[in-house]
Amino acid sequence: MDRSLLIHVAVLLGLTALAVSTTQAAEPAPARQKELVHMVRQDCGSCHGMRLAGGLGPALLPERLADWPDDSLVATIIHGRPGTAMPGWQRFMNEAEAGWIVARLKQGFPELD
Amino acid sequence: MRLRPAIASLVAALALAGCATTPPEALRGTGDLGVVIERAAGRVQIVEHSTNSSLATVPGLGDLSHAHVTFSRDGRFAYVFGRDGGLTKVDLLARRIDKRIIQAGNSIGGSISQDGRLIVAQNYEPGGIKAFDADTLELLSEVPAEYAPGKFSKVVGLADVSGQRFVYALFEAGEIWVTDFTNPRRPTTTRYPAGKQPYDGLVTPDGRYFLAGLFGEDGISLLDLWQPERGATKILAGYGRGEQKLPVFKMPHLRGWSLAGGQAWLPAIGRHEVLVADARSWQETARVAVKGQPVFVMARPDGRQVWVNFAFPDNEWVQVIDTVEKRVVHTFSPGKAVLHMEFEPRGEEVWLSSRDSNRVSVVNTATFATRSELPADAPSGIFFTARGQRIGF
Q1: A89 to chain B: closest CA residue
Q2: Which CATH fold would you assign to the domain A3-107?
């Protein structure tokens, strides 16, 4: 009895731990989110504009990105687009973080604070 | 002691003399003035470099990421070009906005004509240039960068040269255009093929040569404006030697005083190098290895040093190259995310903006000691009125 209860609890705990870690992978920690917002507005901003309304690179505003599949945008951010001025950013972020950026870009990107 | 009442009565007399005259304590020249762009806040600080201080803040200039400034020849007005297409004429003496218009959807800069009467803006969206009356900012004419039917290009590297001409490059079109505004309402334009994806341009201090840096190929396109009919030629072709390019996380800027000691000093693209070419034969004479992808490569006004800042992720560093020894003699970090540098006109000090450290540092160029630090909100460009007296600024 006790045993099976313990196993139950352990399994449940394990499952919640797993759930937490997967949502963490999709959702960077708050401090990291701040860094990513700063990077997008300032460093991506040097080509896409600080307000992401475009520059040498195209605008990254929700209405422009709406029809693009997320994974293709993530691939563009991670690997860049050879032959264009868009560099790959894999040295500075992982795919989950690029995915978080793409989701935010499609919603309207957070402001710097 | 006896001076005191004398001064007091003088002040009183002047006050009585009426409000029409400027109070004498407010009289000043403009030769030592400048502006610092506070990027995110959409503000500029008006600064002076005689004693290195900030005089005033002027808000309300819109999106100033990638802002550029050109000056009236009397040094009184700063024309600030904002990313959002705003063109703001700031009165540096009255310390307020004199006029402001939105002239385009997406702009990266502009320049003033030889006679000081025209302000020409270069735009990404809609791609092209526009000429304005320098007093009123009235639109006089525009030249769309339509390089093929229905195809418009982003305009980069706009520079003013003699004869009311403006020279610029077209990123998508791969061309250099020269537009003559002798009749400001009816400009005439000549086109020259240049090379793949010119990303910025500069004109030599005498206004003779226009250089366009190419992103899409190794090399720099050169147009001799004394003999433009000969067309643009390529210099430093193949400087990458066929090696794999390093990623470029920020485009270099050519606009600077990069002619020093008879040599042109230029950022390589995708290589952590500064390229050096003889300014007469345009042959490569050296290359100097540096810490990252160079962004600004700027010669001190006397040409003895060249200062270099870098693209992300090496943007906290600044390196100084000795132009005789052609090697790096000093490496330091004035703060985080160094975006711009501006020399005082005689070159004894240089101002550096550190966006992420929220300050501008003033550094002695002989000793490299920091002389002053001025707080600023995410500063980017620094521009001094001495630019107003130079060709190509």
Answers
A1: B249
A2: Cytochrome Bc1 Complex; Chain D, domain 2 (1.10.760)
